[in-house]
Structure formats: C-alpha cells, structure tokens
Amino acid sequence: MGDPAATTPEKGRSLLDAVTDELVRFIDAFSNWPTLQKIGPKNLE
Could you tell me the CA-to-CA distances from 12 to 8, 24, 26 in Å, in that order? Predict the structure, then answer.
C-alpha cells in the first residue's frame, strides 16, 4: 500500500485492527442473513 520503509509497528497494528473490526462486522451481519431455499440441478427426465 506504499513504501514499507515509511511504516511503523503502530501503523501496521492500526491497519490490522481496522481490517479485523470490519471482518467481524461483516461476519456478524452475514450470520443474520436469511437462509435461502436450497436449489439444485433440475431433473430433466
């Protein structure tokens, strides 16, 4: 995302924390999505 020489451990931790927070929010929201009806291949016989 840029020059790795210009980073610090604090910036890395901040980025990791932000990504982790967003992932947790997505997983939480995803767990509340409605279950869809199962579909499969159509039997053409």
Answer: 6, 18, 21
- Tokens read off for 23: 């992932």
Half-sphere exposure of 33 (CA within 13 A, CB side): 10
State how far the Cα of 22 lies from the Cα of 13, in Å rounded to an integer. Answer: 14
Query: What's the per-residue H, E or C state across 6-31?
Result: HCCHHHHHHHHHHHHHHHHHHHHHHH
Q: DSSP label at 33?
A: S
Q: What is the pLDDT of residues 1-45, one digit of tens each?
A: 678 788 899 999 999 999 999 999 999 999 999 998 888 887 776
